[in-house]
Amino acid sequence: MSEDDTAVTAPDPETVAARDGVTVDERTRAFPDEQFDALRDRYERIDGVVLVGVTRDDGAVLLQGGDNWSPPGGEVDPGQDWASAAESAVGALTGVEVTVEAAELVEYNEFHREGDSDDSFRAPVVHFGASLAGDADSFREDPTVADDWDHPAFNPEAVDLAWFDAVPADADPSHEDHIALYFD
């Protein structure tokens, strides 16, 4: 992220949620034991998650997937600025620099164990709009995963990147409304 006066900062979801023009949403989702435990373990190590709607000049939105498209994103390390985490996550995935332009949505997910709504935790997600920065002409035409991208949950060979002009029919159902945020 640049250090000038136009840089977007996002120290925490609560600060972002208080800004004009930022939508705040809450969701409740139940998971079976093993999935719930894995989610809790993950969120105990991080501050939350960012999702990023990277757009081209023609309004197309970058998505990752292949058969289950979603916005790119990543984890926010403890104490890390959320906008910086968004730029870093997309940069690591794509190998190109992006500029976060604005927070669009702060989403608080209440995850609970199936059959036990008292066993729950809250997990914040901040959704940012961003654009490609610098010289990324070839990426604008043919987006690819960075050669050195490494992620514990994804096989780089199994992740595709593509530009979309609308929410794809094969979007991840839990991200359809997130993808729709980034279309004019």
Strand order of the largest sheet: 1-5-6-2-4
Q: What amount of the residues lies in strands?
A: 25-35%
- What is the CATH architecture term? Alpha-Beta Complex
| Helix count, DSSP H or I runs of 4 or more residues | 5
List the quaternary state of the chains. Answer: single chain
Helix proportion range: 10-25%
> Which consecutive residue ranges, at least 5 long each, have pLDDT under 50?
1-6
Structural class: alpha/beta
What's the N-to-C terminus distance? 25 Å
What is the H/E order? Answer: HEHEEEHEEHEH
Kindly give the count of domains: 1
Outline:
globular
CATH class value? Alpha Beta
Rg from C-alpha positions? 16 Å
Could you give me the name of the CATH homologous superfamily? Answer: Nucleoside Triphosphate Pyrophosphohydrolase
**Number of distinct beta strands:** 7
**Average pLDDT figure:** 89
The biggest sheet amounts to:
5 strands, mixed
Q: What is the fold-level CATH name, i.e. the topology?
A: Nucleoside Triphosphate Pyrophosphohydrolase
Organism: Halosimplex litoreum
Protein name: NUDIX domain-containing protein
InterPro entries: NUDIX_hydrolase-like_dom_sf (IPR015797)
